[in-house]
């Protein structure tokens, strides 16, 4: 199967060669009479290739409009349901029966190796090979209008923010201050007064529950005299006396 059949007048062979080469380099399969071998039946071979072609690219010029072969090839290809892609290489006027179609301008092709019309011809042939899908049958992911593009862009930005963008880390907590050293009870200067913890049996130190310190040193309490014991009255037995002096005791047996 041929992607394109190129029809032209013998006088325009140089233009046809350049067009055929451009289509072949773009990946299309092209048949033209330059592929005829010696001894081939000219008419039968052309008819067979027209039947196998999806598109007929006809080169209209002042030479081809007067030719008998070019219009006949276009008619035969159209009868075989091939699409006709006309091009113009000079200021000619195409035959009336083929007018009313968009003609690709290839004037000046021989002087311009990168003529923009060559790309247009290739795209036109490809439009025959792989036609665009109708609007209703396009896949769901094919966008059709600028509001759809805008919506897709907004959705993409939201997904990027959720999935890709890093989450900001919270600031570190303030440093915790460590407690200072516990006071040892020793004064920082000379001649001061320091408090010392009380021991069992009362408060250490002089009167008022404080110990006077001279020279910056706290006085150490002396040994305490155990309280006197008594007989315990009618219950008998000795036990510590709860009175501070013997005069306060009402028992005669107090020792």
Structure characteristics:
255 residues; alpha/beta; Rossmann fold; 7 strands; 9% strand
Question: Largest sheet, described in full?
Answer: 5 strands, parallel
Strand content: 5-15%
Number of helices, counting only DSSP H or I runs of 4 residues or more: 5
Overall number of strands: 7
* Principal-axes shape call: rod-shaped
Which spans of ≥5 residues are poorly predicted at pLDDT below 50? 189-194, 196-216
CATH class of the domain at 4-130: Alpha Beta
CATH architecture of the domain at 4-130: 3-Layer(aba) Sandwich
Q: Which class do the helix and strand fractions yield?
A: alpha/beta
What oligomeric state best describes the polypeptide chains here?
single chain
Average pLDDT reading: 75
Q: What is the gyration radius calculated from CA atoms?
A: 59 Å
SSE string, helix = H, strand = E? EHEHEHEEHHEE
For CATH, the homologous superfamily of the domain at 4-130 is named as Toll/interleukin-1 receptor homology (TIR) domain
Q: What percentage of residues falls in helices of 4 or more residues?
A: 25-40%
Distance between the termini: 140 Å
Determine the CATH topology of the domain at 4-130. Answer: Rossmann fold
Side by side, the strands of the main sheet go: 2-1-3-4-5
Describe this structure in words.
It is a single chain. With 255 residues, the protein is α/β, with parallel strands linked by helices. It has a domain at 4-130: Rossmann fold, CATH 3.40.50.10140. Helix content is 26%, strand content 9%. Helix 1 links the parallel strand 1 (4-7) and strand 2. The N and C termini lie far apart (140 Å). Residues 189-194 and 196-216 have low confidence and may be disordered.
